[in-house]
Amino acid sequence: MVSEEELGDLFKRYSAYVATIGIRLLGRDDELDDLVQEVFIEAYRGYHQLRSPGAVKAWLARITVRRAVRRLRRRRLRSMFSLEALPADARLADDGATPEQSAEIASTYRMVERIPVRLRVVWVLKHVEGETLDSIAEICRVSKATVQRRLRAAERALEVEKERQGDRNGRLT
What we know:
Blueprint: H1 4-26, H2 32-46, H3 56-79, H4 99-113, H5 117-128, H6 133-140, H7 144-172
Helix pairs in contact: 1-2, 1-3, 2-3, 3-6, 5-7, 6-7
């Protein structure tokens, strides 16, 4: 078991990283505190199994992804195809973003919310978090080829969503 002091240090060092992955996967922050807490509770319980102290960041990312995916699946089951609106206070864009950039980012996240969870996870880790394919494969515990397939599928799904959004916007004008 990890000591409370070590857990505190781990939390101080990586909580912002865990929260960043969480907000970007969940798309909103009303569940974020609970997610971060769950991640560090699991880390507390499993820290003794960690073989290399240098692997902590990837290990925490893996826990975060797993916990976020569970939440997304539960959310999807609860909503049964009715998408929940993205809260206005979701921290998706940097503070320095223009209103236009913020609107574009929110629109992109709404589209990302509509694609399957396993595709969403790899897309966010690659395009938002800047993780490498190897790192994503490790975090998701899949092969690099699977990551590549999922990224391609996510890109295709997002293109379909963009076309749908464009069709809807075209009909409104």
